[in-house]
Amino acid sequence: MSSAPAQTVPAPSIVVIDDDPAMRLSCRKILDKSGYRVETFEDGASGLEGVERLKPDLVIVDLKMPGISGLEVISRVLEADPSAVIVVITGYATIDTAVEAMKAGAYDFLPKPFSPDELRIIVQRGLERRRLMLEARRQELERELLRRRFVTFVSHQLQTPLAAVHQYLNVLRQLEDDSEGAARRREWYERCLKRVEEMLALIRNWLTLSAIEGQCLAQQRVPVDLNSIVASVLEECRALAEPEGIRLEARPAPEGCLCLGDPVCLRVLVENLVSNAIKYNRPGGRVEVAVQPVDGELELSVSDTGLGIPKQYQPFLFDEFFRVRQPGAAGKPGAGLGLAIVKRIVAELGGRIEVSSEPGQGSTFRVRLPAAPSGVPGVASECAEHRSDPSLWPVPSREAESRSR
Amino acid sequence: MAGNTTVLIIDDDDDFRTAVRALLESRGFTVVEAASGQEGLALLTECRPDLILLDVMMECSTEGYGVNQAIKWREEYRDFRHIPIVMVSSIQESPDQLFPMAGEVDMIRPDFYVTKPLDIPAFLATVQKALESASHHRSQPG
């Protein structure tokens, strides 16, 4: 987030509402000296008007005033701005009312008489509280925006193929069943199937993402033989690669080099990287998948000889629904969830991922994963320490959500 | 009726174009396809369409609005300004909800509006109406 330079940030503004002229004067003097912008009002009605006009960072209000009471001021101010921070001034005799004020949503209270320092401290605390409230609200809005964007994108991604299939079926019903019609019907059925598969894949990916998010996936930490996962994924992907004349090659790690993780997740990870390497390759290209021990970790690298990823797109590569727009990439099926899934899995398993790419020559994705300690099968508690980076999660976990409340 | 009438379909979805093309051809229209807004604009001179079917959301952006606006307002497309545009969107909302600015900014309101998947009789009626409105406009001086 960009923040304005310090000198242009206006001083915090404070509204004081008190019917006692001496109290208004002393509050103003003390707070003025601390560099705050202060406005004072002599009763609830003018005070509320001032709050509405000035939108102050802090409201200080006397509880016992003629006319509109302090309590009512509190509830009206909070009604207009739930993030408003209100400090109540009260005499010792009316401490019960102060409690009531706190219940009504006041942030703190200051019993009379108070020293200038007491006022300054409580104001500082109140302003800090205000800052946190605004920050929390900003974050909430941002999350809400992400959530809405996610829903919009998924809906559009599902609606588009669904509309296409519907359109085919609907037009088929309208067209004459001539000799040309039979061939067309067959072709359109094939196309419909493809679109339906596209939707199924999207839903599968979406479910995978929410499974990782809901912490139902990547739960296990067991020694896993990446070599065998790579071998079986390559076998599975051969059908995808062969029509394009793409060669698939594996360079396995020395026997006994295991990584620590969840076998199901690791398979999804390898599948996503390999299928991307095939999808964005050139006809007759090559995909190489290597596993090797590096610096006490295990490195999985997937290289292709494809389009490459222009530098300006690389930072967004792992974002949900991000798809590189370049000639040759258009028309490739996919919703842009594959690499987002990869990133989540890697983070969840306590690893990291980086990409290097040369447009026109190809890309290499390198994943570092924790190695399993040799000869100690099935033990893996240290991974819990590097839990995933919360910034990777567009929808907040329940834990984070309750924290912000 | 549709004899010699050319429809330009601008839509990034191959399958949508294929289905609508077959439908329109079966009704005697000539169909030209463009897979992007850019391609569609580039084809205008060559194919001189009588009607444009324009998708709002292409490549996940509202490129269709830009194309609509370019044809209706940009000087370089003044020869094509009279061509009726039928906008297509998969969003099931009324044009008034979709184009809240339309009252203020005239340029983004589409001439005609249909939603995906197309309801075929309603779509064909809209195409008919659009073509009639254009011939009506052209017969007026100015």
Describe the SSE topology.
The complex is a heterodimer of chains A (405) and B (142).
Chain A: E1 13-17, H1 21-33, E2 37-41, H2 44-54, E3 58-62, H3 70-80, E4 86-91, H4 95-103, E5 108-112, H5 116-174, H6 179-213, E6 222-224, H7 226-241, E7 247-251, E8 259-261, H8 263-279, E9 286-294, E10 297-304, H9 338-348, E11 352-358, E12 362-370, H10 398-403
Parallel strand pairs in A: 1-2, 1-3, 3-4, 4-5, 7-9
Antiparallel strand pairs in A: 6-8, 9-10, 10-12, 11-12
Chain B: E1 6-10, H1 14-26, E2 30-34, H2 37-47, E3 51-55, H3 63-73, E4 85-89, H4 95-98, E5 112-115, H5 120-139
Parallel strand pairs in B: 1-2, 1-3, 3-4, 4-5
Your description of this structure?
The complex is a heterodimer of chains A (405) and B (142). In chain A, helix 5 (116-174) runs antiparallel to helix 6. Chain A contains 10 helices and 12 strands. By secondary structure, chain A is an alpha/beta fold. Chain A has helices spanning 21-33, 44-54, 70-80, 95-103, 116-174, 179-213, 226-241, 263-279, 338-348, 398-403; strands at residues 13-17, 37-41, 58-62, 86-91, 108-112, 222-224, 247-251, 259-261, 286-294, 297-304, 352-358, 362-370. In chain A, 46% of the residues lie in helices and 17% in strands. With 142 residues, chain B is α/β, with parallel strands linked by helices. Chain B has one domain: Rossmann fold. Helix content of chain B is 42%, strand content 17%. Chain B contains 5 helices and 5 strands. Chain B has helices at 14-26, 37-47, 63-73, 95-98, 120-139; strands at residues 6-10, 30-34, 51-55, 85-89, 112-115. The longest helix of chain B has 20 residues, at 120-139. Chain B starts with 5 loop residues before the first strand and ends with a helix. Classes of the chains: A alpha/beta (405), B alpha/beta (142). The interface between A and B is medium-sized, with 25 and 18 residues.
